């Protein structure tokens, strides 16, 4: 009788132990939505439902694996997956961990090939010891019938494109691509400024008065404002006794909260608009052709790189400090 009782107790304890282990494990369901925004073909949204708060780590396998760790809550979660290889049935490893358990799994995500018009990227030399971590972000634009169509690209150290943004919805050029402090992608064109997340979803769209046309530079400032190179419609210059429209010679400070222009700089005040330029092939209206902006926090000054008139420094109070040309 005692022997049978011992066996029964042993079976009971083993059963309780199995139940305890089962209770400690993480139960989850995962479903993948490829390119939910229809603008970032090498991204996906992982819908995860778990029964516990835990840490989720995913790794896109490959020659240059990409790993990201995020906190997920019990219930439904949406986790962006980026860094997929193009034209590949990608294997993505999943690890869900909490204080008393870990669950491992993998999913497959099939992607389409890179469009044929994209360039082939060849990396001849990469000195990793002297490079920042991460991938390489470039502007890519295609010209067709007088219009540009933009496809900014991220490629890894092997020259493989691991992310790109299809901005064809805009119907014109959106540039230049840069990253915000939050990690979004910032571009501008015509009278619009956009930020996108890694999935290609629009996180902000600022629409300026149509007379303002953004070009060549949109710079994130440290105070939730943007500094943009603009053409201001209706403004003119006098060249050779003729009054003609002025192009690409204004700067605007834009408040991202109100989406309004709060300050302007006019380069016509500081430079000779009829001075011989460095590129005589351009029309006289494009006397400056502002290409880039930089902000110096030390003295709140602005550096302007212009295609036709060299390098200019302005104070925040709109005073000319120097010209380097």
Please trace the helix and strand order, writing H or E for each element.
Answer: HEEEEEEEEEEEEEEEEEEEEEEEEEE
Using only CA atoms, what is the Rg?
Answer: 27 Å
**Overall mean pLDDT score?**
90
How much β-strand is present in the residues? over 45%
C-alpha end-to-end distance: 103 Å
Number of helices: 1
**In this structure, how is the largest beta sheet organized?**
4 strands, antiparallel
Using the alpha-carbon principal axes, give the shape. elongated
- The residue ranges in which pLDDT falls below 50 over 5 or more consecutive positions are 1-23
Helix content: under 10%
Number of strands: 26
Structural class: mainly beta
User: Widest sheet: strand order?
Assistant: 4-3-6-7
Brief sketch in words of this structure:
This protein is mainly β.
Folded structure, characterized:
The protein is 7% helix and 48% strand. It has 325 residues and is mainly beta. The strands form eight sheets. The protein has a four-stranded antiparallel β-sheet with strand order 4-3-6-7, with no helix packed on it. The model is unreliable at 1-23 (pLDDT under 50).
Q: What's the helix and strand layout?
A:
Blueprint: H1 2-24, E1 28-34, E2 44-50, E3 54-60, E4 66-72, E5 75-81, E6 89-98, E7 101-110, E8 136-138, E9 141-144, E10 147-150, E11 153-155, E12 161-164, E13 175-179, E14 185-189, E15 192-196, E16 202-207, E17 212-220, E18 225-232, E19 236-239, E20 242-245, E21 250-255, E22 260-266, E23 290-296, E24 301-306, E25 310-314, E26 320-324
Antiparallel strand pairs: 1-2, 2-5, 3-4, 3-6, 6-7, 8-11, 9-10, 11-12, 13-14, 14-15, 15-16, 17-18, 18-21, 19-20, 21-22, 23-24, 24-25, 25-26
